[in-house]
Every structure is written in structure tokens, then in C-alpha cells.
Amino acid sequence: MKQHQILIMDSGIGGLTVFNAIREKLPEVVCHYIADHAYFPYGTKTEKVLEKRMKELLRWALDKHQLDAVVIACNSASTAVLDELRAEFAIPFIGVVPAIKTAAELTQKKSIGLLATEGTVNRQYTEQLIQDFARDCKVTRVASSDLVHLAEEKIQGKLSTLEPLREIVSPLIAAKVDVVVLGCTHFPWFREELKHIAPDIQWIDSGEAIARRVEFILADLTTDEATKEATFYSTKKGVTNPFIERFFNIETLSID
């Protein structure tokens, strides 16, 4: 049986948390991955820059692979340019947005937290999510681009101490929230560490919801494309680690 192919995109390897969720639910799907390390991190980029860059990458990917769907595994990019991508490309897009609705449903204290990049925390899209689904909650927002860099270090086996992590989440602990939304796909790499630092907080992300959405979209699609091995593309040379080597062929992607 021929397999569906999808593309997962992020500025780095944080979106591999989304890949993990999809692989667990849909092991037969071939997942290609673009890590745009040349533009890392997306959370500090303007909407105009993100739109131009991601359209360039998508044109290349759609020419290279017969894709059935694209997952934008980045909260910052999803909240900024998802509508523009859908308007230009005739392929299903699945975005990642902060799980504010889920947090508001889970909280017992009506006090939730959002841990995300500056772009996601400050974007109007996020504010609208809070107004729509968590208006009756106190929402403590913490923006951190440093945590994105720390996650990249951890995945590559370079992280030496958790003290920066403790400092970053200290405002959430001080606010006595009971649920925190991990509003960046890099952040679930610290799930176990976060549970250790603050065991009374429930840390949630959108990975499982994205996997269910991918399953729903692919259920109605057929493909004539022959099965291909999954490929990991980085826009920067030398990016690899045992996790990536286990699941992907690795190539460097050069976009002029």
C-alpha cells in the first residue's frame, strides 16, 4: 500500500515534538521535515519576513515531493502567516496554535499560564484566543526566546544546567497557576524537567491535537506517489543528532 507524505516545518528541531505525536498516531505516514536553522528562531521575525521565507521553502518542497499536507510546527509562524499560505497553495495546511481553550477547560484555579516566544505571546491572534476561551481566567504570559535556544542545545546533547529553565518559569510558579500552555513546539522537550521543577502545574501542548487533525485530513485523500524515505532538511550545514539519524535521511537545503 502506498503511503501518504507530509511536510513538517519549523525554524529548528523543536517541531520534532509534533513529529513524535504524528509518528505515534500515524506510523505509516512518511514525514519529511524542514528545519530552517538559517532563519532560527521564527519567534523574533516579523510577519512579512516569515511569509516571504516560508513561501520560498514551500515552493521548493512542493516541487521536490508529492505532498498530501503541510504541518507548520511553529506557533509563531502559524499565528502569523497561516492564512496567507492557505490562500496561495492548494494543499491542506495544519497549524499549531497555543492550547488556550484546553487550558481554560482544565484549570481548577481559573489561573493559567502561557509560556511561548515573544512573537506568539504578543500577537493579536493569541489575544483573541484568550478573549474567546479564557476570558474568565487570569492568564500569566511569559515570553522566552532563550528557552528555544536551550531546547536546541538539549536535543543536541549540549545542555549542562537547568538553572536557566528554573529562572524562566519562576513567574508562572509565583503566579500560582495550575495549567501552563507550552506555546512553542520546542518547549515540550523540557516536559520532564518542568514536571520536576513545578510538579503541581499541568504542562500542556498541541502535539496530540495536531496528530488527530493530520489523521482527519489524510483520511479523505488518496495518492499515486510511490513510497519514499523520510528526509530531514536543514538550511544550515552540520545539524544532526542520534534522534534525527534514527528516523530521517539528512540533507542540507540551500535556498537562494
Enumerate how many helices there are, as a single number.
Answer: 11
List low-confidence stretches.
none
Q: Architecture of the largest domain, CATH level 2?
A: 3-Layer(aba) Sandwich
Biggest β-sheet strands, sense, barrel: 6 strands, parallel
The total tally of domains equals 2
* E-strand count: 10
Global mean pLDDT: 91
The largest sheet has its strands arranged as 4-3-1-2-9-10
Query: Rg, please?
Result: 18 Å
Kindly provide the name of the CATH class of the largest domain: Alpha Beta
Strand residue content:
15-25%
Secondary-structure blueprint:
Elements: E1 5-10, H1 16-25, E2 30-35, H2 47-64, E3 69-72, H3 75-88, E4 93-95, H4 100-106, E5 111-116, H5 118-122, H6 124-133, E6 138-143, H7 146-155, H8 163-174, E7 179-182, H9 191-197, E8 202-204, H10 207-218, E9 231-234, H11 242-247, E10 249-252
Helix pairs in contact: 1-10, 2-3
What's this entry about, in short?
The protein is of the alpha/beta class and 256 residues long.
Molecular structure report:
By secondary structure, this protein is an alpha/beta fold. It folds into two domains: 137 residues, Rossmann fold; 106 residues, Rossmann fold, CATH 3.40.50.1860. It contains eleven helices and ten strands. Strands 4-3-1-2-9-10 form a six-stranded parallel sheet, with helices on both faces. The chain has a four-stranded parallel sheet with strand order 6-5-7-8, with helices on both faces. The longest helix is centred in the N-terminal third of the chain and has 18 residues. It is globular and about 50 Å long. The termini are far apart.
